[in-house]
Specification:
The chain has 203 residues and is mainly α. It has one domain. Helices cover 38% and strands 8% of the residues. It is built from 6 helices and 3 strands; from the N terminus they run ααααββαβα. A 3-stranded antiparallel β-sheet has the order 1-2-3. It starts with 10 loop residues before the first helix and ends with a helix. The C terminus is likely disordered.
Length: 203
């Protein structure tokens, strides 16, 4: 005689188990997605710090920063978008002197460029994947009429990640800095700046 009568789960018991699993997923999934975003933010900040070190090392050797679009061709208006291709502009950091072994890519830049954003369409031409945007700023004295003051010898530089929302927010509202305190996936670009005036302003 079998003293232990075997029986399966009832429908109610199965529904309770499924409900518990769904509740656990609902709690864990947002935390998992937030952790992914935080990891990408940390990755972008670390790579941009490395880029900044390489850019300053380049300045030490050449007494100028890598050129961006208007440094290359100040007379062509509107500027040739190809001159602003950040990946091409930053290749000087890998050869002939390897300040970087390779140019890093923005973890927040998707498969396509939003061409409705004028600056984004200019700054992110290659890829996918796309590198961080690179720009120079400032002046070493006025140049001839109709040319940028910073032609060839910019004072400062900046590298930009699109941030978790995947948009070039500077093209919409001016420089908007990303802050996780506004929400992990909030507006704002991750921006790192450096240069001669930046250093003087921070002293």
């Amino acid at each position: 005689m079998n003293l232990f009568k075997q029986r399966g789960f009832t429908l109610i018991e199965l529904l309770i188990v499924i409900a518990i699993i769904l509740i656990l997923i609902a709690i864990a999934l947002p935390n998992f997605l937030e952790a992914q975003i935080r990891a990408k933010v940390t990755k972008a900040q670390g790579e941009m710090r490395t880029l900044g070190t390489a850019i300053e090392a380049y300045y030490t050797d050449y007494n100028q920063y890598p050129a961006d679009g208007d440094d290359l061709d100040p007379t062509l208006f509107p500027f040739d978008p190809a001159n602003f291709d950040s990946f091409t502009r930053m290749k000087v950091l890998t050869t002939p002197i390897a300040y970087l072994t390779e140019i890093p890519f923005d973890p927040f830049h998707g498969e396509t460029v939003d061409l409705s954003q004028t600056s984004a369409a200019v700054l992110f031409l290659t890829g996918p994947p796309f590198t961080y945007a690179y720009n120079t700023f400032g002046s070493y004295g006025a140049q001839s009429p109709g040319t940028p003051d910073n032609f060839g010898r910019p004072d400062d530089w900046g590298v930009t990640s699109l941030g978790p929302n995947g948009l070039f927010d500077a093209d919409i509202n001016g420089p908007v800095y990303y802050s996780a305190t506004n929400g992990t996936k909030s507006v704002g670009d991750i921006i790192r700046k450096g240069g001669r005036r930046t250093i003087l302003d921070s002293l």
